[in-house]
């Protein structure tokens, strides 16, 4: 049996026959035209662009009904491209200047734009490059240069393994036949993953080499919980996997029966288990698995799913929906957390090191009008229920103070306009930069709460790009250096009497739960699908044991030693849980 690692996108376990789609991009051979054909080829392009725009609008309306308004807004990016004069002129200029036929001119123009996006070496623009593939296929089909889409003609139960999918293809998958989805590219928060995660089937992404190693019709297993693809498992292995799936289903069903019971340790310490969400529609699912609130509402997708910046009313609509669905539970909204090169169709020259460049709060403070629009919406929705605002990537005190000044300026505007708004909105900051962690005691005097973002904190502490395969093995939130910073931040928050949560991926790992509690954390915010597991671990352990584990771990020297120790401790504290995990 071959096992390939992947990024978990949607939970579940599926066994079935593989259907492999190795490359969605098909070459278009150039057919030179005569000068007198230029006008007619240009008209063909104009007609194709208009027809595809109408098709996209119809798809957007359909997806809005099937998957929700947020998913439908992804098509706004496609429509924005179609209506962009720069793309239209690029195609027409190839026809006029090179005497290219309409199909070849279209394919080459979109390929040029895709290469520009890929050259930015940024995951968000790489996702947009994949979106361009959808436009290319639609336009070429209208121009008569492509045949039928194989994915649209699936008529038997399969596990689909694709080099790439477009958002439209993901949205159009028929789950009567597609029982799970494996993608070689993308991540948990790509446009395609947003679409696919709403289908209710197991989904994994970033499964490199899967289209090479998997043969058509072979038996495969998709583990959407652990993030892995198993190829050609033996009969006894299949039996074990099916048994594991059965245990997981039983565990989740049991957790749902107790979803509204407090997460309390065996010795009576109550822990708040909250959820990280991308879209407002995720709140209902979060509550079904026992989430106590939203500890992190990532607002980037209001921007990334549109070809323009969202309006104040569009912000307000999304925040209000999330707040209303929470039914009185707290909604923590993180302000815009992207870089300058991720906004709009064509941005400035790419930065040589975007992770250390103009991103997150730095970008917001440089683009104050955009920032103020978001702050106005947050203040307005906070008048309607328990809302908190959180500033990301704060590294120095001046950034925090400028952000707070902008918030106060906006508050005064709303007061003058007579619009309802919160007068005492709790303000917090992410701790994800080493300077902020080291100065936590000082920052604690100026905010109402901390939220530790271990994803960025880990890569900054260890100097490891978590998106770089060459050094991915060095990235671990279980490294003692990271854990000591987490402990110090939690201690500083406790000393100054403010709340402190942890909202990075480390919060989703059951092996780390005892340690995080022992380090002093009493609020964890995580991927909603992992909440049942974390709640069960919390109910199985004693705080005294968690603190003992933390003391033991902080004396270790490597992440491997830490993880080995934590697996042993969890095995003793919750042996049934460890057995169900297959460990």
The overall pLDDT average reads 86
- Provide the gyration radius in Å: 25 Å
Number of helices: 25
Q: What structural class do helix, strand and pairing data support?
A: alpha/beta
Strand order of the largest sheet: 1-8-7-3-4-5-6-2
What is the beta-strand fraction? Answer: 5-15%
The unreliable regions are 340-348
User: What's the β-strand tally?
Assistant: 17
* Molecular shape: globular
Largest sheet: 8 strands, mixed
| Measured distance between first and last alpha carbons | 18 Å
Oligomer: single chain
Report the helical percentage: 40-55%
Give the helix/strand layout.
Layout lengths: L1 E4 L1 E4 L2 E9 L16 H30 L1 H4 L2 H8 L2 H14 L3 H18 L3 H20 L15 E5 L4 H5 L6 E6 L7 H7 L5 E3 L4 H4 L5 E5 L4 E4 L3 H23 L5 E2 L5 E8 L5 H6 L5 E5 L2 H4 L7 H15 L4 E4 L26 H6 L1 H14 L5 E5 L5 H21 L9 E5 L2 H5 L1 H4 L5 E4 L1 H9 L17 H17 L2 E4 L7 H9 L4 E4 L4 H10 L2 H11 L5 H15 L1 H6 L3
Parallel strand pairs: 3-4, 4-5, 5-6, 10-11, 10-17, 11-12, 12-13, 13-14, 14-15, 15-16, 16-17
Antiparallel strand pairs: 1-8, 2-6, 3-7, 7-8, 9-10
Helix pairs in contact: 1-3, 1-4, 1-6, 4-5, 5-6, 10-22, 13-15, 15-16, 21-23, 21-24
